[in-house]
Amino acid sequence: MNTQEYISSGILEQYVTGTLSAQEKQEVECMSHIYPEIAAELLSVQTTMEAFATSISKTPPAHLRDKILGSLHALAIEEQSSANIKKIAPVATSSNEKTTEPLDKNNIVAMPFNMMRIAAAIFFIVSVGLGYVLYKNNTTISSLGNEISSIKKEIQLKEQTIALQTTQLNVIQNPDVQKVNLAGIATKSPDSKAIIYWNKKSNDVYLSITKLPEPAADKQYQLWAIADGKPVDMGMVSENNIDSLFQKMKTIGNAQAFAITLEKKGGVPSPTLTEMYVMGGV
Fold first, then answer.
1. CA dihedral 2, 5, 9, 15 (to 10 degrees)
2. Of 40, 119, 175, 231, which has the most beta carbons under 10 Å away?
3. What does the longest C-alpha to C-alpha distance in the chain come to?
């Protein structure tokens, strides 16, 4: 795997989102030290993730505020009831003596303890709120990492398509290339069509499928050249995109005609004439 394939694999996004194993993390860090382009891409992904996380940062949901206020109100009522129960009545004395209310040490001790309970409750509720926000942000960042990886794969596929179309255009416009039209066999598949682009200087042969029936799962099309009256294997036709295929085949220096037959998957040493779909003379 080259560096571009490594970058396109999505492992850098997983590293930033923290979804890799310890061994995989070590691998990414090692690769980023060896290859500057991987280090640059890793920095780019980290910057993108951080910018996105900052842009979506938000306060805890509104229902948490109501939950916090409700808890504080309930604690306040509880503390008021406790204070009323613990309040000690004044001690009755004679008319000549002053009434003195004794100091309740339990109340003094209870006050800081109750404040600690309130603070603990507030801390717990706020922690729940912050945990909710962090969870939502981490989920979003992980989703973003998957999306970036998907976009990279789409870009890579489009680049491959553009490269194929560029090759096709260069071949078609080359003055050394001869175009050979392959028409459908009337008794087999009259609507089928294909085109051969044959460079007689380099002996390169390109096949462009215009229309061929979709083969069965155990079948595959095979290209043949007719040279000196004998069939020459030119290779198997790719099973992908059978109706819009442009494929480089085997080279040949001499040919009088080209044909395509439908054979068992993997090909045969000689063509099955009853399974010939298209043919054209040079």
1. 50
2. 231
3. 143
Residue with tokens 């969870």: 135
Residue 138's identity, in one-letter code, is N
The DSSP element (H or E) to which 173 belongs, if any, is helix 105-173
User: Helix, strand, or coil here: 251?
Assistant: coil
C-alpha 88: how far from chain center: 70
Q: How far apart are CA 106 and CA 117, in angstroms?
A: 16
The overall pTM is greater than 0.70: no
CA distances for 200 relative to 177, 178, 195, angstroms: 7, 7, 16
Q: Are 235 and 250 in contact (CB under 8 A)?
A: yes
Any residues with CB less than 8 A from the CB of 121 and at least 6 apart, and which? 71, 72, 75
Bridge partners, 130 (sequence order): none
User: Up-side HSE of residue 215: CA atoms within 13 Å toward CB?
Assistant: 23
Q: Are 181 and 279 in contact (CB under 8 A)?
A: no
The pLDDT tens digits for 79-133 are 566 555 555 444 444 445 444 455 454 544 444 555 555 565 566 666 666 666 6
C-alpha pair distances (Å), 80 with each of 66, 86, 223, 247: 21, 10, 94, 86
At residue 241, what is the residue type? N
CA distances from 12 to 20, 56, 146, 263 (A): 9, 21, 11, 44
